[in-house]
Amino acid sequence: MAEREDGPDPVDEDAAWAEIVAGFDAEPEPGTGSWPAAEDIGADVRDDEPGDGEEAEESGDTPEEPPAAATRSIVIHPVIAGPRDYETEEEDEGHFEPPEPPPLPQADATTKFAWLAVLGGPALIFVYILLQEEMPWWAITVGIGGFLGGFATLVARMRPGGDEDDDLPGGGAVV
Length: 175
Fold this sequence. Notes:
mainly alpha
């Protein structure tokens, strides 16, 4: 591949990085700042302030006069309430307590055995699988047959849901 001769001289990246690393801890030259002049404070103010409170306490130096306030060209606005400072006026409208729910209907023996078959049939098969035992024919028959029989019993005993149940109290508005 041909080298480019029409552009500026290539920069030695290793030398540039070495210069940056060498000048990392060096103090900047006086008169050059990396921020606007309005935010700049004088070097005498910077040198008079202790780094943290411990150094001033250990040396026993206490400033006799507070440092002169730097003149600023930036106007600092007072704190304005924002959207997160909004507080609602708490008005107690009474605490709502829902009414006690009606008791569950009592299930008859047939429904209880149907639920036992629907849940117990697959549980029996699941236990044989977890124990890694060979499943006898009667466990497969009881597991699958119990599930199917219990499900069919529960579906057959469902209440018919239709428009003929209009006489139920609390059934909603009647037009």
